[in-house]
Design a protein that fits this description.
This protein is α+β, with helices and mostly antiparallel strands. It has one domain. α3 runs antiparallel to α4.
């Protein structure tokens, strides 16, 4: 599997726009993590590996709940994380 910053950013943006649920974003990140563990994940370019991985690990768990009807991370938290982890 090949991955770049734009594909990670797209998941953040789709989720924030409501076109992807937080649960779907979490599952996507989990699948990416499985590829990393299997040694089949290719970072493009390889120099962006740290940024890409930081975004993926944030998305894995983005569906955590603080209470039965409230997510741990607000949309604003997610926007800030996207900017900090992936850049502007």
């Amino acid at each position: 599997m090949k991955i770049d910053v734009q594909s990670v950013r797209r998941v953040f943006e789709e989720m924030l726009a409501g076109r992807m649920s937080r649960e779907e974003a979490d599952r996507w990140a989990y699948l990416v993590m499985q590829q990393e563990e299997a040694g089949t994940l290719i970072y493009l370019p390889s120099s962006d590996k740290e940024r890409i991985w930081s975004g993926v690990t944030y998305l894995y768990g983005v569906d955590l709940m603080e209470s039965p009807d409230e997510y741990l991370h607000t949309d604003e938290d997610i926007r800030t994380a996207m900017s900090m982890k992936l850049g502007s």
